[in-house]
Amino acid sequence: MNDSLEIILLTDLVFIIKALIAFKYTEKFLILKSDRRLKSLMIWLMIYFICQIALSRIADEFYPNNSFINILPNMILIFTLQAIFFEKNLFRMIFSVLSLIAAFDILKYFASPLAHVIYNLWSPLFIFLINNFTVDESIILKIEILNRCVNVIIISICYAGQFAMLMIFLKMISKNFIRSDKLSLTENLFLIFPSVSVLVIDFTIRLMAISVDNGAIHLIYSRVPETILMLPIVAILLLGIMIIAVKLFKNLVLYKDEEQKRILLENSVIEIHQKIEELTNIYSDIRGLRHDLRNHISNIAAYVRKNSFDGEIENYLKQMTMTVEKLNFLYKTGNPIIDIIIHQSRQRAINKKIRFESTFQCPKNSTIDIYDLSIILNNGLQNAIEACEKVGGLIEIRSYQKNNFYFIEIENDFDGELKIKNDLPETLKVDKNIHGLGLINIRRCAQKYNGDLDINVKNGKFYLTVMIEV
């Protein structure tokens, strides 16, 4: 028996909605080739709609009860459309197609029991109306129209529920999916297998749900009434497994990235400790050398003046004195290590045509480890120099103490390009796994002393404030 016109129109509408969902879902994973999105969408909808009508008629005629034969052409169709309209990424194409088809198909068991229950409630009423109002042909016609309307409403409600659940599922999948091109084959299979498993289970349920006896089709709901409740639960659980698998994989990837950052941080900690020891020794040697050279030059200068040697020798000794004075650092912070860090940062800034000013002073009578303080200053000044390098300008560093808190402020000009991720600016460098750790390290050191950092941008200037309890 042929379907009524309204059922055909409803089916066509379902095809269009499925095509639209498939396009928008694919956009979450792949990059559209054309800049004209609306045109691409219209062509996608047209091709999908025409092909689905042809495929559904062929499937209904030759394979009416074979779920796999019905699904396979649909998968090939969406995969082909993705290859035509989107940039190629084989794994993401396979994952998006499998997850979409698996979810939509298994959700039939969320909607089908609802339709079965409603039909069972409506059928006795329809039979009652037919048996008791068969005298007047106009009433019979109205009852038949009513029945057709009820059928459309029931199917519409079921499809609406199916699409609503599908949209929630697809949103959760796309939100938790890790868009990385560095995944191994095992990792790709880990993401794909749940969708394949759901399709296999769906096919198995379909074989058990429909049986043919003497040419009549019998549904499992009549033979095993418990399935009316169990099949929707199974459908939701299977979708939940797919979501959990994607979310679990996301957490594993994030954990791997954090572990890599932790290893890099530990290595940098070891290097900084070594540099601090080396700088301390160098600073002590420089102070001793400067003191000895001053005494030697003084003695030689006195000898030259006493014996009336040529003025050129005296000028030469003055030049030596000026050279020795260069070994003396401009900024005295109260700690030799911090003196060196600020001195080196100033030299780097000057070499890059950046003005540098400092009124920084180390906190007095503080329990702050000089190592932690050096991490804060080293990372903060390094970031400031890299940001200021593009525009020139000025770097200022200052400090002050207020009650039990010690504040470090670093101000610098920058080009205004800033991306915030997890309330911290994200590095603009290509390899984000080994870059962008400076502010994270600063925050860890500050939190070690019940403090934190604050970032502010105003009038083309970047302000970093670090608060530490002393």
Structure overview:
It is a single chain. This protein has 470 residues and is α+β, with helices and mostly antiparallel strands. It has two domains: 5-255, no CATH class; 330-470, Histidine kinase-like ATPase, C-terminal domain (Heat Shock Protein 90). It is 68% helix and 11% strand. It is built from 13 helices and nine strands. The chain has helices at residues 5-27, 37-62, 67-85, 90-106, 108-132, 137-176, 185-209, 220-223, 227-306, 311-325, 336-351, 370-388, 438-448, and strands at 210-213, 216-219, 355-358, 394-402, 405-413, 420-421, 424-425, 452-458, 461-469. The strands form three sheets. The protein has a five-stranded mixed β-sheet with strand order 3-4-5-9-8, covered by helices on one side. It has a two-stranded antiparallel ribbon with strand order 1-2. Strands 6-7 form a two-stranded antiparallel ribbon. The longest helix is centred in the middle third of the chain and has 80 residues, at 227-306. It is elongated and about 140 Å long. The N and C termini lie far apart (85 Å).
The residue-averaged pLDDT reads 80
According to DSSP, the number of beta strands is 9
Radius of gyration: 37 Å
Report the portion of residues in β strands: 5-15%
Can you list the strand order of the major beta sheet? Answer: 3-4-5-9-8
Structural class: alpha+beta
How many domain regions? Answer: 2
General form: elongated
Largest sheet: 5 strands, mixed
Unreliable stretches:
none
Terminal Cα span: 85 Å
What are the secondary-structure elements, in order, as H or E?
A: HHHHHHHEEHHHHEHEEEEHEE
Report helical residue fraction.
55-70%
